[in-house]
Amino acid sequence: MGKVKDEAYELHMNPRTVVQWKKCFRDVCAEHSRRNTPIIGGFGCEVEIGETLVTRRKYNRGRWVSRHQWLFGGIERGSGRAFLTLVRRRDAPTLLRLITKYYT
């Protein structure tokens, strides 16, 4: 059985209903994350920032698929507060703007 089928069986629901509820929960979590992004850093705090490319390989082989997305994020050591945002352009002005937006 697949994961959705297992969940549907446990919840006594139709698998399509389970998929719809999961989409709803993802949307709620994404909206909450957009509205409540923490400001990290401050005096005496260590902050790690980085970027990563999210993509997949075509047919799980060596070639890259043309669709990909860059993410930029940071985490505050100790408290664990973090931010993560999609980045369309990875040039210096864009990344500096994001650093000043999320880091105090």
TrEMBL record:
Query: Could you tell me which InterPro entries the record lists for this protein?
Result: IS1016-like_transposase
Q: What is the top-level taxon of the source organism?
A: Eukaryota
Q: Which PANTHER family does the protein's record reference? A: DDE_TNP_IS1595 DOMAIN-CONTAINING PROTEIN, SI:DKEY-17M8.2
Task: Provide the protein name.
Answer: Transposase
Source organism per entry reads: Haemonchus placei
